[in-house]
Design goal:
The complex is a heterodimer. By secondary structure, chain A is α/β, with parallel strands linked by helices. Helices cover about 30% and strands about 20% of the residues of chain A. The two termini of chain A are about 30 Å apart. The model of chain B has no long low-confidence stretch (mean pLDDT about 90). Classes of the chains: A alpha/beta, B mainly alpha. At the A-B interface, helix 3, strand 6 and helix 4 of A face helix 8 and helix 9 of B.
Chain lengths: ~350, ~280
């Protein structure tokens, strides 16, 4: 995986560096006697870094390991192997006691707005909890200011979460995340549980916060258009691995990996005349309990070249967009295309 | 929580009546010396086994003691035992349940297997065995019953903690850096309060019944102190000549136990997450 690091866009000031991070869950044995304990490879050798002030997106279908990756970075899961460096400190195996002061600088916004707020606490207490926890001096005015930043009226302060709408609850979650003025906010599908009209509001709010407060974002979404709107760079995950990484506009406009192409082609278009054919992937995402050998995508890939796909794990090849993708089609000298110059994999659309 | 309970009560008249009866019992227990017309232990051997009259509204027992006053004091012993048992078993059981559920692993297995063993015995049988070890009397009864009812709380709370643990607000507290003791107290405990409250009302009923049972066989509250159980026991020999002794105490016991069960039922309906009305 060394190549990843070389190809990675060099960041002057990386806030977060993730190197070869894996998170495997061992499942309980099914039978009483015999039988190997099964290992679920939720995240497998993921490497990327996020620069200060950058917005980095993670996309992939459900079960691709995006959330597990995010939770491992925040140390809600113990990483199995690899390295996480945050603000220059290796936090991979830092004991919780030493990690606690660093937690101030990394906060999370959750997908499920109902579950992410304690139903027995008032909004005031929820928003103030980070300040209380870190023993920071705070007044009612500070809490009001946080509510204001998140675009919430102060009348909500004395209410309970169930008295608020989904969008309002997500704003409370954002206010809570902002309380400690973190460097990094990990937003795990922050809008996917919301109405479409509310989605745009919340995304715009996050965008304003990012530009005004210079917060670094790691945004997780299954909707690639949300990521393109919000992020400078994007990583596409499939079955626990990053298959393509690059500047989001370029990845969206000119995807290199066949899986990214499929994802991009699934985005609905506003112009009915531009009929780009849609790549429909067949079959299900394979089980992470027994991931395919070679390229993880070969079982569903519409442009599979041959045995090499199912035998050899593809290394990262540079793409025209300035990022990289892990696909044998991009190998220099492969008949299909030439990685250095032109957009890749132009063939294949008609095959599906 | 209080909102949903009051909503439930508005549409549940038996629950209101039950609450009224329980309140009256509590008041009687609390103000027993003021309410009782006579000294419950004053004997008058010239006036034994008297039928209810103006002077003794519920008659007298075999020693000529005022039965009404004895019932008032029996309410007091019964309440003292039940309240102590409920508080002790709920506090200890809830703490163990949160600890087991939140910690998981070996501690969890150990505590749960121990509670399985205790729950394998009917609670009254377990309490009898414990009293044999601790010694009879008010104190022994309270300790034995509290131990016997603790595993039920531990189980219920642990089950709830296992599901609460997966809620995102627990993860959120962890990312904020809240330590696990505070998470348990502030985020887990309030969310298991509902089931604990329901179980509290149930345990209260069982404790009243068990105390009466234990006193009936002579292992609970010892005479001459009045208790529902020992009044019934002493009236047993005169059931054909002076039926008011056993019957009045029996009715008193049934009334409070029934009220508590109706209350528990109403609380369950009010706090059941599956019929939550927001």
């Amino acid at each position: 995986m060394l190549q990843h690091r070389c190809i990675e866009m060099s960041q002057v000031d990386p806030l977060l560096q993730v190197t070869d991070l894996s998170k495997h869950f061992s499942l309980r044995k099914e039978r009483l006697w015999g039988g190997e304990p099964q290992v679920l490879r939720a995240v497998d050798n993921v490497t990327f870094e996020i620069g200060r002030g950058e917005s980095f997106g993670l996309v992939g279908e459900s079960g691709s390991g995006k959330s597990t990756l995010a939770r491992s970075i925040l140390r809600l899961h113990e990483p199995t192997s690899g390295r996480i460096v945050f603000r220059g400190t290796d936090i991979t195996h830092l004991p919780e006691r030493d990690l606690r002061p660093l937690r101030r600088h990394m906060q999370m916004v959750f997908q499920d707005t109902k579950s992410s707020l304690n139903p027995r606490l008032r909004i005031r207490d929820i928003v103030a909890e980070p300040l209380v926890t870190h023993k920071l001096p705070h007044s009612a005015a500070d809490v009001n200011e946080l509510m204001d930043k998140a675009g919430l009226s102060e009348v909500f302060l004395d209410r309970f979460p169930h008295q608020l709408s989904g969008g309002q609850r997500q704003r409370v979650g954002i206010a809570r995340a902002l309380a400690l003025s973190p460097d990094l906010i990990v937003a795990d599908e922050p809008v996917s549980a919301l109405d479409v009209s509310i989605q745009a509001q919340i995304l715009n709010l996050l965008k304003v916060l990012q530009s005004e407060m210079g917060i670094t974002f790691l945004l997780i979404a299954h909707d690639i258009s949300v990521v393109t709107y919000f992020c400078q760079r994007v990583a596409v995950m499939y079955l626990g691995q990053v298959v393509e990484l690059g500047p989001s506009r370029e990845v969206m406009g000119n995807p290199s990996h066949p899986y990214t192409r499929a994802l991009v082609s699934a985005v609905p278009r506003t112009d009915p005349r531009s009929r780009r054919s849609r790549i429909v992937l067949r079959g299900e995402i394979p089980s992470p309990l027994s991931p395919p050998t070679g390229c993880p995508f070969h079982t569903r890939c519409p442009v599979k070249i041959g045995p090499i796909c199912s035998e050899v794990a593809p290394p990262a090849y540079p793409t025209a967009s300035g990022g990289w993708a892990a696909c044998h089609l991009l190998a220099p000298g492969t008949g299909a295309s030439n990685s250095a110059s032109s957009p890749l994999i132009q063939t294949g659309e008609g095959k599906v | 929580m209080i909102e949903s309970i009051s909503t439930e009560m508005r549409g549940n008249p038996p629950m209101i009546i039950a609450m009224a009866i329980i309140t009256i019992y509590m008041a009687i227990a609390l103000f027993a010396p003021v309410i009782a017309p006579n000294d419950p232990n004053r004997q008058d051997l010239r006036r034994t086994l008297e039928a209810p009259s103006r002077e003794y509204p519920l008659g007298t027992d075999e020693y000529g003691r005022d039965l009404l006053s004895r019932l008032v004091y029996a309410t007091r012993s019964s309440t003292v035992v039940a309240v102590s048992v409920v508080v002790a078993s709920a506090v200890i059981g809830t703490a163990l349940g949160i600890f087991a559920g939140y910690r998981g692993g070996f501690v969890d297995s150990l505590l749960m297997r121990a509670s399985d063993i205790m729950m394998a015995f009917p609670s009254l049988v377990l309490a009898l065995g414990l009293i044999a070890a601790i010694g009879p009397g008010l104190r022994g009864t309270i300790i034995a019953l509290a131990i016997a009812y603790t595993p039920v709380y531990a189980r219920i709370v642990r089950g709830n903690v296992l599901s609460i643990k997966e809620e995102a607000y627990i993860e959120s507290a962890q990312t904020i850096g809240v330590n696990s003791t505070r998470i348990a107290v502030r985020h887990v405990l309030p969310n298991v309060a509902g089931p604990v409250l329901v179980q509290g009302a149930l345990t209260f009923a069982f404790a009243v019944l068990s105390e009466a049972g234990l006193s009936f066989v002579g292992l609970g509250v010892a005479p001459p102190t009045a208790s529902f159980g020992n009044i019934i026991a002493s009236g047993r020999d005169y059931i054909s000549t002076a039926p008011w002794i056993s019957t009045s105490s029996g009715i008193a016991t049934v009334l409070i136990v029934l009220s508590l069960l109706i209350l528990a039922d109403g609380l369950r309906d009010a706090l059941d997450p599956y019929q939550h009305r927001f």
